[in-house]
Amino acid sequence: DTEVTQTPKHLVMGMTNKKSLKCEQHMGHRAMYWYKQKAKKPPELMFVYSYEKLSINESVPSRFSPECPNSSLLNLHLHALQPEDSALYLCASSQDNPEQFFGPGTRLTVL
Amino acid sequence: GQSLEQPSEVTAVEGAIVQINCTYQTSGFYGLSWYQQHDGGAPTFLSYNALDGLEETGRFSSFLSRSDSYGYLLLQELQMKDSASYFCAVRDGDTGRRALTFGSGTRLQVQP
Fold first, then answer.
1. Residues A82, A86, A90, CA angle at the centre, nearest 5°?
2. Residue B105 CB: number of other CB atoms within 10 A?
3. Measured between beta carbons, which residues in chain B are less than 8 angstroms from residue A101?
4. What average pLDDT does range B97-112 have in this prediction?
5. Which residues of B fall within a CB distance of 8 Å from A36?
6. Where are any strands of DSSP class E within chain A?
7. Nearest CA of chain A to the CA of B106: how many Å?
């Protein structure tokens, strides 16, 4: 299984809602990532988990809260988002080599 | 920190060869990667160069010159399905970070 899955594919939420994005991989990768991608822009790193511990937080606002319940799962909890947070949220995983495997992303719209 | 520069758009015809350049500035260097992303899709890994020289994978090749902080992706025998955005990316070597910093992307349009 060389796939990273993400749910949901699309999410529309209001600024007062709380929602979660989910990511799963069964490749045994010990590093997992969240990226944010705006239209016609490159992916921007948000968080890195290494061996289920948060190792990098790229100064992301606290309305985004990551969680790694186990080595296969990565969540991104969303609360009180702003319309400018609307974007494609990509999850990725990797082992000890340069190749990162990306999931299909969750397209988030904040109203 | 890191910064990477690549052309914003390239247009070519089917069957042609196209080269997408990338220059980078990094505080540490672990290698240069290339990713392809179709509209609405996820980035997919194409190649990685840690050492100087050319790496070939089918129709795609990637080159690195560490002394020039420069690399390129070469796409041969272009097909319509190669129309996509192509990103170069580096890992931060100083802190051993695995995370990638991407260039701004080159949108390749292949015309019949």
1. 125
2. 24
3. 45
4. 91
5. none
6. 4-7, 10-13, 18-25, 31-37, 44-50, 53-57, 64-70, 73-79, 87-94, 101-102, 106-110
7. 10
Alpha-carbon distance of B84 to B4, in angstroms, equals 19
Per-residue model confidence (pLDDT) at position A97: 77
Tell me which H or E stretch contains B21. Answer: strand B18-25
* Contact in structure between B86 and B35 (CB atoms under 8 Å): yes
Q: Give the separation between CA B49 and CA B58, rounded to whole angstroms.
A: 16
Instruction: At B89, list the tokens.
Output: 């990316």
List helix spans (H) across B2-66.
Answer: none
Give me B52's structure tokens: 């100087």
SS (H, E, C) A91-105: EEEECCCCCCEECCC
Q: What angle do CA A76, B33, B42 make, to 5 degrees?
A: 40
Pairwise CA distance, residues A62 & A89, whole Å: 16
**Nearest to B30, CA basis, from B47, B10, B11, B49:** B49
Min distance B42 CA to chain A CA atoms (Å): 5
Chain B interface includes A102 (CB < 8 A): yes
Q: Contact B105/B5 with Cβ under 8 angstroms?
A: no
Q: What percent of chain B has pLDDT over 70?
A: 95
Q: What is the pLDDT of residue A55?
A: 86
Contacts of A90 in chain B (CB under 8 A): 42-43
Q: Please give the pLDDT value at position B97.
A: 63
Residue A17 per-residue DSSP state: -
Q: How confident is the model at residue A98, as a pLDDT?
A: 83
Minimal-distance CA residue of chain B relative to A48: B99
